[in-house]
Design brief:
This protein has about 210 residues and is of the alpha+beta class. The protein has helices at about 15-30, 35-50, 90-95, 115-120, 150-210; strands at about 55-60, 65-70, 80-85, 100, 125-130, 135-145. Strand 1 (about 55-60) and strand 2 (about 65-70) form a beta hairpin.
């Protein structure tokens, strides 16, 4: 095997692995903002897997994939990158609903790197979908600057982390739905009270007119 296409980053410290997964598990139950949790998980994953870049993309209502978390690339990309359908390896992962591992992504014709100096240097690619039940809501990717195969252990680890991230996203959705339901209920109560108030004014007005007549 070519030395430039070697395997790297096998995690040999069980305590380190368990500690990182426990930390991610604690974040699942956190009350932090979703983007803050995703940033923390991306950083933990990058450190654990010893990769240069870790990114989390989430599917938007308009069908685009938005970069919601980014470790290792230019800081200004987060929140400002949206990939449209068919644009790059990210969409290959989304549409196949399967993990994708490439020792050197630059050799794949579907590769569409972001137009930044750091993104252009990335070669090894590993991406896994984020699933909530049967729905694919985004993906998580890890990248290396050199060409290197990802081990089966690393693939399983990324899939495990993605399951945790999906739980975080589902929890955020449920919270948002709850808040919207509470806001709608509050509006309904306010409208009901307003209608009752208007009814009382009209009733009082009618009594006044009767007395005047």
């Amino acid at each position: 095997m070519d030395t430039q296409m070697r395997r790297r980053g096998t995690i040999k410290d069980p305590e380190r692995l368990i500690g990182a997964l426990l930390e991610i598990g604690n974040l699942v139950g956190s009350v932090m903002r979703l983007d803050d949790i995703l940033d923390r998980i991306a950083r933990i994953t990058a450190d654990l897997m010893e990769v240069s870049v870790c990114s989390i993309y989430l599917l938007q209502e308009d069908g685009g994939l938005a970069l919601r978390s980014n470790v290792g690339l230019e800081s200004g990309l987060k929140g400002n990158v949206v990939r449209r359908r068919g644009d790059g390896l990210q969409w290959v992962v989304m549409e196949s609903n399967a993990i994708l591992a490439l020792a050197d992504a630059t050799l794949d014709p579907r590769h569409r790197p972001l137009a930044t100096p750091l993104a252009a240097q990335c070669r090894a690619f590993l991406g896994a979908p984020l699933r909530i039940q049967d729905e694919v809501v985004g993906l998580m990717t890890v990248r290396r600057m050199d060409a290197a195969e990802f081990t089966p252990e690393q693939r399983r680890l990324l899939e495990t982390v993605c399951k945790q991230v999906a739980i975080v996203i589902e929890k955020a959705r449920m919270y948002e739905d709850k808040m919207q339901a509470e806001q709608l209920a509050a509006v309904a109560v306010s409208l009901s009270g307003l209608a009752h108030y208007i009814k009382n004014i009209l009733f009082t007005s009618q009594i006044g007119e009767y007395l005047v007549d």
